[in-house]
Amino acid sequence: MKRRHSLVLLLGLALSMVLGLASATTVTVEIPKYSDATKPFFEAAAKAFMQDHPDIKINIQETSWDNLHQVLVTDIAAKKAPDISIIGTRWLPEYISSDVAMPLALPSSFTDRFIPAFLTPSSIQGQLYGLPWAASDRALIYNKDLFKQAGITDPPKTWDELQADAAKIAKLPGRYGFGLQGSQIETDVYYYYFLWGAGGEIVGADGKSGLHSQAASDALTYLKGLVDAKVVEPNVTSNTREDLRTLFGQGRLGMFIYLPPIIGWLKDNAPNIDYGIAPLPYKTTPVTYAVTDTIMMYKPSVTGASDQQVKDAQAFLEYIFSKDNRVNYNKQEGFLPVLQDVAKDPFFTNNEKLNAFVQLLPNAKFAPIIPNWEKIAQRTTTMLQNVYLGKEQPQPALDAAASDIDAILQQ
Amino acid sequence: MKGPPLAARRSRPTATAINEQAFAYLLLAPAFLLAIAVVGYPILNTIVTAFSKTNAVGQLAGPAGFANFRQIFSDPIFLQALWRTALWTLWVVGLTTIVSMLLALILYEDLRGKRVFQLILLIPWATSVTMTTIAWMWTINGQVGLISNTLQVWGWIPEPLGFLARGPSALVVAIAIGIVVSIPFTTSVLVSGLHSIPEEILEAGVLDGAFGWARFRYLMMPMLGPFLTITLVINLINVFNSFPIIWTLTQGGPAHGTEVVVTYLYTTAFRFNEFGQAAAMSLITFIILLALSIAFSVQTMRTRLS
């Protein structure tokens, strides 16, 4: 008896699978892991979406940020690209020039909900190629207890104040004043905070490297001065952004620059640290660095998708930007809102710490969306590391890097 | 000697023998074709890519002649990486061989608890290289690492050590880890090599007064030749191509100070999207390793023939 039951069950299962394959389209979504909350969020959204659309199957694939670019490039080359993926916005120009990024045709009732500034990085020559996903900006994170011990009342607003305050904290035993990042991804960004703060640009209006400018020189001389004055942590060139976060979490670092997820991270890992969030100290120009990753769709030429599959993918894309989904997402991951209705949600207006980051957005700068961005970032990083290590003097190092970057910009 | 050459004097193979041989080849054919496909396709693909223009997502965009090769050989970072790869390989393989030889000689002796030592030796082999590297990275970390903190608590150093902050010291750390992970394999092969030496030879040597260094140099070393060659060739290829240790420690930084060919190749392909240049680099790696392997094999065959 039992056997026959299971046989019928098996046949039924096989039949439903065959029928299922015949009628359902599968939409593949490739996502990077921001935190442990990323995949559960997407899977819950996919499940809810599939309940409303039983004929669509959503397949969520997660990979690490480090591997994402490699995975996508390999899949694109094999014509097995996902229908939708999150990407680093800096990759978008390459995807457009290689003709794999799908221009998005979305109703204005949908696109009007976005905070306009966040749509600019993925709009290229008037065409929208993606939507902003994880938005963040940068702020100065400071340890209030160490400030008190060093006799500092307010967070520094200018470069001079930053150096003076860092020096006071560095006098406390076993404590470092200001965290300077000198290793791996975004080492260059830590310098851009100061380049922009002195009124400079990464790429000048003439299309040449911004490292030729006086601002570039001022910024690098200033940072090297902090290293020489030993008000930053020792061995700068071995510390990644996350190493600085660890030092701050241990209460050994007075200040450093980080992004909104620091709030959740400190709550989970170092709840006893009393900290404040302040704008980045500047010389002439107040600034923050804003970043959005982009969620985009691929052309059928690299996905092999049918027209129906493309429609279904777009339906899912619109669905995950529903207000409820986005509020949930931002709560779980700690990023900034990209939708105006989400920004008005009490969760953001009542959250003093997150609001401190939101307040900085009017001064936001985005990285230029140019091809070969990674080469420029690497060249700048190498220059910074050589200067921090004392292998090169700031001005000659800048001159050499600027001319190399000019050549990269010409490619 | 006069008369017909040796081969002609042998009896010709019979028809059944030929059939048997043909049948053997037939049986081998599927495996052989599979091997060609698995090994040959990537090599062919690399060669084609190395001589092509590529776009940002790795698709081919027309022939490029030798442009990719000209590009990488005019890149000082690549040339430095090539030189550093040679240093890195020689140091790791050289020191691994010396240390492993000593360990093998110790394990060859009748030692109490020899099996336990052999087992302990194998443990690092069973651990992933990345895991081993991460464990060492935390040990030597300047801020929270065991070594730096201990020395600071004892007051031996005024400020944290930054092994990974400078290229040369970071490379030394990488070499040390490279040696640690290469020892288990090398020692195991050499121990089996020592056990394969007939005991009569060593006993006869003892009667003739060959002890210690003489026994090692004139009796063991010549007999160990093939085993030593195997470990050298395999270690050479592995270390030359080794990616995880340096990538995990420094990603080739700071300021390209620990950049070797494979890490730079990865950066060139997957950060800079220069797939043609990356393919050219891997082709050069392939040629170097092929030449070294052939040289070693020829050397071994010659020694065996003489």
Looking at this protein, list some descriptive labels.
heterodimer, A: 411 residues, alpha/beta, five-stranded mixed β-sheet, 20 helices, 13 strands, 15% strand, B: 306 residues, mainly alpha, 13 helices
Low-confidence stretches of chain B: none
**Helix segment tally of chain B:** 13
- Mind describing the biggest β-sheet of chain B? 2 strands, antiparallel
**Strand adjacency order, main sheet of chain B:** 1-2
Total number of strands of chain B: 2
Distance between the termini of chain A: 73 Å
Q: What percent of the residues of chain A sit in helical stretches (DSSP H or I)?
A: 40-55%
| Largest sheet geometry of chain A | 5 strands, mixed
Q: Separation of termini of chain B?
A: 22 Å
Supply Rg of chain B.
25 Å
Which value, in Å, is the CA radius of gyration of chain A? Answer: 24 Å
Beta-strand content of chain B? under 5%
Helix- and strand-based class of chain A? alpha/beta
Polypeptide structure, described:
- The complex is a heterodimer of chains A (about 400) and B (about 300).
- With about 400 residues, chain A is of the alpha/beta class.
- Helix content of chain A is about 50%, strand content about 15%.
- In chain A, a hairpin with a 2-residue loop joins strand 4 and strand 5.
- In chain A, helix 9 crosses helix 10.
- Chain A is globular and about 75 Å long.
- In chain A, about 45% of the residues are buried.
- Chain B contains 13 helices and 2 strands, in the order H-H-E-E-H-H-H-H-H-H-H-H-H-H-H.
- In chain B, strands 1-2 form a two-stranded antiparallel ribbon.
- Chain B is mainly alpha-helical and about 300 residues long.
- The model of chain B has no long low-confidence stretch (mean pLDDT about 85).
- In chain B, helix 3 crosses helix 13.
- Chains A and B meet through helix 3, helix 4, helix 11 and helix 19 of A and loops of B.
Q: How are the SSEs ordered, and which strands pair?
A:
The complex is a heterodimer of chains A (411) and B (306).
Chain A: H1 2-23, E1 25-32, H2 38-52, E2 56-63, H3 65-77, E3 84-87, H4 92-97, H5 108-111, H6 116-119, E4 123-124, E5 127-128, E6 130-136, E7 139-143, H7 144-149, H8 159-170, E8 176-178, H9 187-197, H10 214-228, H11 241-249, E9 253-258, H12 262-269, E10 275-278, E11 288-289, E12 291-297, H13 300-303, H14 307-320, H15 323-333, H16 340-343, H17 346-349, H18 352-358, E13 364-365, H19 373-388, H20 394-410
Parallel strand pairs in A: 1-2, 1-3, 8-9, 11-13
Antiparallel strand pairs in A: 3-12, 4-5, 6-12, 7-9, 7-10
Helix pairs in contact in A: 9-10, 9-19, 19-20
Chain B: H1 6-9, H2 15-50, E1 52-54, E2 60-63, H3 67-73, H4 76-108, H5 114-126, H6 129-140, H7 146-153, H8 167-195, H9 199-207, H10 212-240, H11 244-250, H12 261-270, H13 275-305
Antiparallel strand pairs in B: 1-2
